[in-house]
Amino acid sequence: MEQRGILYDGKAKRICLTDDEDKVIIRYKDDATAFNNVKKAVLANKGVLNNRISAIIFRYLRNAGVENHYISTLDDRSQLCRRVDIIPLEVIVRNIIAGSMARRLGIEEGTEPSNVIYDICYKADELGDPLINDHHAVALGIVTYDELHNIYGITAKINGLLKSLFAEAGIRLVDFKVEFGRTEDGRIILADEVSPDTCRLWDMKTNEKLDKDRFRRDLGHVIEAYEEVYRRLANIEDARGL
Ligand code: UDP
Q1: How far is the CA of 101 from the centre of ligand 1 (A)?
Q2: Taking 80 as the threshold, does the pLDDT of residue 115 lie above it?
């Protein structure tokens, strides 16, 4: 697979074209950003860990019937993925209240709601990725109601699968964000990444945070936490012989 020009250079990943127009190479960087790019740092080895963690999760989801863009791992920082048109929506799932929802609604972080909560945000850096609702998304021409219905269905399935994978790893899946893309033939599949940058992960025994909140909140030991997540997930994948 030969690498061609850069398709998109993002905050945490770079997407490169290849000599096959249906495939891209995604390279995970060590750069960390938070609060819409206000807080920045380079965390040595984060890209390597997120590349590995995302790959394990995409392989696990694919084996469980959730189609996604991951094809194979190329090296420590890169994976070969299907090229998709990213739908400019961040789909957020909340099993436990934390982060922006806790702040916005004055709910104590760690509160367990009676139902799973889904938020959608419009991916637009210049607007700060605002929270929107289904009607906004349709009016903006991002998706149809049918596509949204499909996206929520896939997202619910992903939530069930990830909750049980992380539970096996002794980790509570507090919340996470996913993104979807359209394939050439118009199907909607999971894309982007799933990693401690995009999930809140709390150790089930100690409640210790094992995710990007360690960076956002200056809790220290960020990379050690990502390494711990990787170690536990890799053990599960090895044990299953996948
Ligand atoms: N999230 C993300 N990218 C974003 C915004 C949120 O990956 O641009 C993830 C975040 O890591 C958390 C979940 O989505 O796991 C919910 O985030 P929240 O809305 O609480 O925002 P935050 O307070 O983290 O900015």
Answers
A1: 10
A2: yes
pLDDT of amino acid 3: 86
Atom of ligand 1 nearest to the CA of 212: 11
> Bridge-partner residues for 27, per DSSP?
14, 78
- Residues 6 or more apart in contact with residue 186 via CB below 8 angstroms: none
Ligand 1 within 6 A of 97 CB?
Answer: no
Query: What is the rounded CA–CA span in Å between residue 213 and residue 39?
Result: 12
Q: What's the pLDDT at 242?
A: 59
State in Å, rounded, how far the first CA of the chain is from the last one: 24
Q: Give pTM, 2 decimals.
A: 0.97
| pLDDT, tens digit (0-9, with 9 covering 90-100), for 33-91 | 999 889 999 999 999 999 999 999 999 999 999 999 999 999 999 999 999 999 999 99
- Residue 199 beta carbon below 6 angstroms from any ligand 1 atom: yes
What are φ and ψ of residue 233, in 5° steps?
A: -70, -40
Question: Ligand 1 pocket, 90 CB below 6 A?
Answer: yes
**Across 61-170, where does the E strand assignment appear?**
70-73, 78-82, 85-86, 89-94, 117-122, 131-132
For residue 55, the surrounding DSSP H or E stretch is helix 46-63
